[in-house]
Design brief:
This protein is of the alpha+beta class. The protein has a single domain, classed as Glucose Permease (Domain IIA), CATH 2.70.70.10. 28% of the residues lie in helices and 31% in strands. Strands 1, 4, 5, 6, 7, 8, 9, 10, 11 and 12 form a 10-stranded antiparallel β-sheet that branches. It has a two-stranded antiparallel ribbon with strand order 2-3. The longest helix is centred in the first third of the chain and has 35 residues. It is globular and about 40 Å long. About 7% of the residues have low confidence.
């Protein structure tokens, strides 16, 4: 019995050490990538307020997500433009397959239909960072503009809405478009959220 307790203690101690090592490595990566992207000024703010990956785990373990650094990629719908966020793709192309949640505490500033973003939500944090979630299949019940939300609050469900008049679906695979915007000299500027998502994903796995 004592031997079993000893082994369990060692196992938990090693797991704790590996967990915190990965978190520190993720923080360092975030800092380095933000600096490389010219966004070093934003690092401390994101580390302080961002707590949750924007897609919740499937409680049944059947649907997963993946994402790549597609920030700045070319887009043509609605005119030639650059991609101002990261697409988090679902392993199952089914609207509503995964829940979307708030990355940080804030207030719902925008909500409703956009031709490009479909059903979207914009949340402004206390620091002024604007977190943007697009292409939702539907919103969480009773969520409205002006509501205060906490990190982890369910905002709705992943979908494939957008690229047309209100209600348009199916123009692309089910995913969440996640963006970050901050004020730069009076103009709202998009920032690459990829390093933050890498960091938050490790936090979620932990």
């Amino acid at each position: 019995m004592l031997a079993l307790l000893y082994l369990l203690t060692v196992w938990f101690a090693l797991r704790y050490e590996v967990t915190w090592q990965s978190v520190l490595e993720a923080k360092l990566t975030l800092q380095q990538e933000m600096q490389r992207n010219g966004d070093a000024d934003l690092t401390k703010t994101l580390l302080r307020e961002a707590e949750c990956f924007p897609v919740k785990k499937d409680p049944h373990g059947q649907v997963f997500w993946n994402f790549e650094d597609g920030y700045g990629g070319e887009r043509t719908y609605g005119g030639k433009r650059r991609h101002e966020g990261i697409d988090i793709m679902a392993s199952e192309d089914r609207p509503g397959c995964l829940q979307i949640c708030a990355v940080a505490d804030g207030v719902v500033e925008q909500m409703g239909w956009l031709k490009l973003g479909g059903y979207r939500i914009g949340i402004r944090s206390k620091s002024g960072v604007y977190y943007y979630y697009a292409h939702l299949a539907e919103y969480a019940e009773d969520l409205a503009i002006g509501d205060a939300v906490k990190a982890g609050t369910v905002l709705g469900w992943m979908g494939n809405t957008g690229y047309g008049k209100e209600g348009t679906t199916g123009k692309f695979a089910v995913h969440l478009h996640f963006g970050i915007y901050t004020d730069v000299d009076g103009t709202e500027k998009s920032r690459n959220p990829f390093p933050l998502l890498q960091y938050l994903e490790k936090q979620t796995i932990r």
